[in-house]
Amino acid sequence: MRKPIADILYACIAIAVAACSPMPVDDDTPMIIAAPSPSTPKSEITAAIEDLISTYPVCIDVPLFRAVDVRPVDLDPAKLSVNDEDSEMAFDVMVRLGYMTKVPRPDLGNRVFEFKRTQLGTDAGQRRAGESADSAIIGTRGFCMPARRKLVEIKNVEDKTKVADSWYLIVDFIHTEDPASVWAQNADLRQLAGGERGQVPSGSLVGRVLLQRVWLRDRHPVRGAPESGELWAPEYDYVHNRWTDIRWGGVNLRPWGLN
Prior knowledge:
This protein folds into two domains: 5-56 and 147-181 and 198-257, no CATH class; 60-144, Arc Repressor Mutant, subunit A (Orthogonal Bundle), CATH 1.10.10. It is built from six helices and 13 strands. The protein is an alpha+beta fold and 259 residues long. Strands 1, 7, 8, 9, 10 and 13 form a six-stranded antiparallel β-sheet that branches. A hairpin with a 4-residue loop joins strand 11 (236-237) and strand 12. The protein has helices at 5-20, 42-55, 87-96, 119-124, 182-185, 187-192; strands at residues 31-34, 57-61, 73-74, 100-104, 112-117, 142-146, 149-163, 166-177, 205-216, 230-232, 236-237, 242-243, 251-252.
């Protein structure tokens, strides 16, 4: 009896993806990675880049955020270290944006306050697939917020390029600021993310992304969902020699220091 065409196609897809993948599929494999096909539609590449640069987390280090929901904070300038001198501005920005509340504690001192996450701050900080553990709006050492960059133009696409023993679809593109973003509308927030602590420039920049085809656990093509693969720029953990579920590892908003 002849096999149905669908079964044959599925078998071919499964074999092809397994052959491209640098890791076997087993119970301990969180994902498999394969180089995107040269025939990947430009529309899919465009959509993937738009999503990656919009959600890319820009993080600001504020060590005193460890006290949020835990203990009161003394913001007396005379008692703050050099590393904490911008902390009150960071707290006030988060309060004004609705991510936390600020309550004076005069019983503990003239500049002592209690900070708590609001429901908005709690909801926004929930980790989703493809987000790093540090990408919460309010974390243990600061906060991260989506870059909200907008794609202007795809400049170049390189098929099947090998970088550090892995194959990628490398895309160079132009991106700019979304005028409706929180960065564009809050100069004090941009100031906190300036210098070495963030990348939220206002003008157009050249970016680069290293795309790969990713299948998450239980969605591997050999397990019946060949259409589930997504274009990510996954991060590789060289300490543990494995891919992570951080999907922006291969995104560079300002590559090679050219901008």
